[in-house]
Design goal:
Six copies of one chain form a homohexamer. Helices cover 32% and strands 29% of the residues of chain A. Chain A has one domain: Ribosomal Protein S5, domain 2. Chain A has six helices and nine strands; from the N terminus they run ββββαααβαββαββα. The relative contact order of chain A is 0.18. Chain A is of the alpha+beta class and 238 residues long. Chain A starts with 13 loop residues before the first strand and ends with a helix. Chains A and B meet through strand 3, helix 1 and strand 5 of A and strand 3, helix 1 and strand 5 of B. Strand 9 of chain A pairs antiparallel with strand 9 of chain F.
Chain lengths: 238, 238, 238, 238, 238, 238
């Protein structure tokens, strides 16, 4: 297996553009190769019922794809009247990932919504979403600090995510759509900047995988995520 | 009433970017000032049940706004499980407008979906959607012609749309969000390049309007739409 | 084009029967030819959440057709579990039209529901609904005045509506179903008794229309609506 | 307990008006006192999937109340997006009752929809619906016979229904809304003109009832239903 | 007609197992032959909105079947997104039946949910549910008494239910699925231990039934329900 | 941390009862301690549309919990009208796990539905479901073989699943509800009898986890799953 333009251990070109949309407190366009996701962070001065009066905040995510983000048009979930299991699964993952690096007591009794809307899909939309949503979250937190609404950042460390897989028996980093379609195994890793794991999800699409394969994928993911932290830092320092 | 940077009879800066997304047969980013809409055209080789076997095609539209396209976040229709009356009304309008310039027999037994997704809203999202969707539709038709699937373009003429209104008693062209919020009357005109009307919608938001006001708004709209046809042509000639 | 029993500029026989149903505060059977609509006005001593505590009222409308109001049975929206785009569009139009003549501060913190249920459809159901709902609204307001709940009528003027269209190139007033089905253009005008416009909606069903055609239709509509005001007054004086 | 204008063993004034609406094959306005229901019968030349190709027909019913058929406005089921348990229960009952007197083989592979829409409710809406729907069904069957679509009527006998109850310990026939609200027991009987039972439904609203009370109610119901058969016959002979 | 293993007047083997599940306040597995239903009673210290602040309680029921409780798999209502008319009808019946023997004032401002989940269906699931739910309700009430939350039992008497029918012209007690499928008439009786009726529901599936048949069925039901009271008492005394 | 009755590396008592329900082709009650799940396998002689005519089969799963399977009653998904994200996520996991060991070509053009209904929940419901569903699947396959519908078993190997977690810094096997509630990390492993992985899901509930912790959990899971294979074999040999 040979990849056009990059080695098996390489990420696609990564781009993180802040302030892509004018209204939200955080608004990022994140690109992993041809995968492009708009990640916005919106602050609301209230919390869900189960948290009211407890003095702690909440971070939650919603995910969607434009109908024609994909090769063939998929029908619009709002028109069908329900979100698919895949959508719910991904947005739950994004929400958990960002909550893992946020101190809810320091956030105070408010909610931050992270909306990840895929405008072009080419594999890895959930990992790009997590990576971009973190940057949008930092910007939203900065606006709270600037307004004096919170005294101290509730962010404990950075979080980023990448997909890895086994294609033709070989471990690959950051699969695009075509690679993903022919992968025997597909894993997603979500890690924090202290080198720890927040989420690990591995699925044998065709054939169960061995301990050795899992370790090879995990090593690749750790390398890739470290590079994503650098991209996030560069975007945030601009 | 004085407008920053433009006269009462002027459009906002208009921008039409083709090929904004890679997968769709037509993919346009249309901007009316700060209003930004992704309009894609997707071809499907089938028609709705009521047209099957009749040899004629169909053009239909779907419309949505990203939750944070607006000043404050609005909840996601897919999550709520139904589209609002406003959404249905707008997408029906877009569909009718584009069907008005398409010869369904020449299109053949296929459907073109026009998806208009507002990524940033600042007034006039439905008129920007119609104006941009026309360009996406031209590109989709061109791909059908290039593939030899149709021999002749089913497009009869161009279509574009603009909003007009009465603010502080004066007629204004192409209202932005703030103007729209304080307008006494809001009208939308959809016209074809032969100078004829496809849709006219006027609503008194605060106070009923007079015949003279309607005529003043109509005149403004006719001027503005002519300029939009020029923008469409320039985009298509690039 | 020749019409059976009336000229192109004539309304169908109009009938407005008050107190058609015993429970509602206002209950009108309105007939435009064979189109028959039950319009009821119901008072509730509360307002929607967005108005609570502001001291102002609300007027809203709901619209429906009995399954067999039409030539062929259409399926029941309650059974399908959602209202069609057409239904939502019409009931939003009715609500806006009646709100345009009501002073919400004078109404006080209460809601008036206008339910328009078409029991027999033969074209012009939305214009008949608006015309009849106004009379039901007057009766409901009278009951509030009679009970001393409000001191002064919140109604600023009367409102009525009519459809016009172009059939075989000629402008027609108050189209029945068959005329509507073959119309090239279909417009609905909603006006107040001071001769001003509340809503204007024009749609080219087959062919875009010219400025001259729009003006011809508008003139017809203005004449027809004036006659509807007379019918409303006669019904209210009985 | 004394009743205004009728004895405890008397029906309310019954009225059955045929051809109340022009489009349906059968269209009846049935009135049991102040309860008024429009019952239409619509023929469709197809059957539900589970009957296709079997050569037999189907009779089914749908039931609804206008929002303001009642003292206080109830919210519209189409707007809520689902039919209540009460609605489903009643329309299932109406369907079963009319199917009980129809020979499905003689009906042939077609469906008759019975739509019962209550425009004014004052108790006994389900029994009025059944009684009126039978007359609408006869008219629809007659149109099939007249068109030569069927050679012989599939109707085996007539069907009608009445409510009975216990109020203040006494058995009452044909309860109005106020009586129904204070009834200890509420029973509905559906019978055929051969004096047999199709449906029996009894519910203790406040206190369980005895065998003797059940028998007293049953006797009253049998008398009342016989009178309803006469009303149906008279309406059909006009 | 001859029955395997029992006479026409006999119940199937009845079994009532308490404490079948560990969490609920009442948890019964009830078996009528091969029909097996888990009935749980759950106490919630709140009441529905229409009862708040009135000092009285509420008893309500929900009913469901596992998809494969039946011979062929039926689709899951949660997946279809709505409960069928049959489900709603049955759970309303169960709720009414149990409320009939409960003094809501003595229960205090709390709700008892009775969940009846059929894990194996062989006819009579609604009557088994009522019979088992009563035992679960007694256990839940006992826990309230034991905790001192109420001083006195709100249960006025016992309630149980059985089905009867006409098969081949003969009256049968407690029909299993196969008998039910071929029954000409199907009746369900719900009675209290004082020998009074709470609910009576009879349906002619094929042919209307006579007064004599109704009486024969009623007699059978009264005998069968008396035996069910004994089974309930035995279970509660263990 | 000390566990009552078992070491940190021990499974809870495991019980697998076949033929628990009479209708389904496979019907298993699986118990992991106090967690009890009914797993049924139902064969349908058709496949979803995307597979029609391809000669291959499908295996899919649905998951649900009885409302009172848990400490406090949770509302019924059928009544709410939609399945939660958690439910969809779990049933997708079960389906993928069982498909991973099934040769769809050998299964032929038919679908096997695996319904996992939790009647009592005490942690690990998804892993118990997968482990039990495999046994139900084997029984369903056996019935196909016995009827000669397939010549050869499509099952490639066994599949089972277990949860592991970190509580108070220590790795634990097979967490019950209370342990799961206080776990810092929660992982689920799905493996095949050849010692390979089908699914790996790890979530940091409170604190991100290290590579060493992941390896400790993985080792525990591998040991536990091997014991589950023994339990499955024993159940199948009875």
């Amino acid at each position: 297996m040979v990849r056009a333009g990059r080695s098996l251990q390489q990420l696609r070109p990564i781009s993180i553009t802040r302030h892509f949309i004018k209204h939200p407190e955080g608004a990022v366009l994140v690109e992993f190769g041809d995968t492009r996701v708009i990640c916005t962070a919106s602050i609301e001065e209230s919390v869900p019922p189960f948290l009211r009066g407890k003095g702690t905040g909440w971070v939650t995510a919603e995910y969607s794809m434009l109908p024609r983000a994909t090769h063939t048009r998929s029908s619009r979930e709002a028109a069908k009247g329900k979100q698919s299991g895949r959508t719910l699964e991904i947005q739950r993952l994004i929400g958990r990932s960002l909550r893992a690096v946020t101190d809810m007591a320091k956030l105070g009794e408010r909610t931050i919504y992270l909306d990840c809307d895929v405008i072009q899909a080419d594999g890895g939309t959930r990992t790009a979403s997590i990576t971009g949503a973190y940057v949008a979250l930092v910007d939203a937190i900065s606006s709270l600090l600037a307004q004096g609404k919170i005294a101290e950042s509730p962010l404990k460390e950075a979080v980023a995510a990448v997909s890895v897989g086994i294609v033709d028996g070989q471990a690959l980093l950051d699969l695009d759509y075509q690679e993903d379609s022919s992968a025997e195994v597909d894993m997603n890793f979500v890690m924090t900047s202290s080198g720890r794991f927040v989420e690990v999800q591995g699925t044998a699409e065709a054939e169960p995988f061995t301990l050795e394969q899992m370790d090879a994928m995990r090593n690749l993911a750790m390398t890739g995520i470290n590079q994503l932290f650098t991209h996030q830092q560069e975007a945030l320092s601009r």
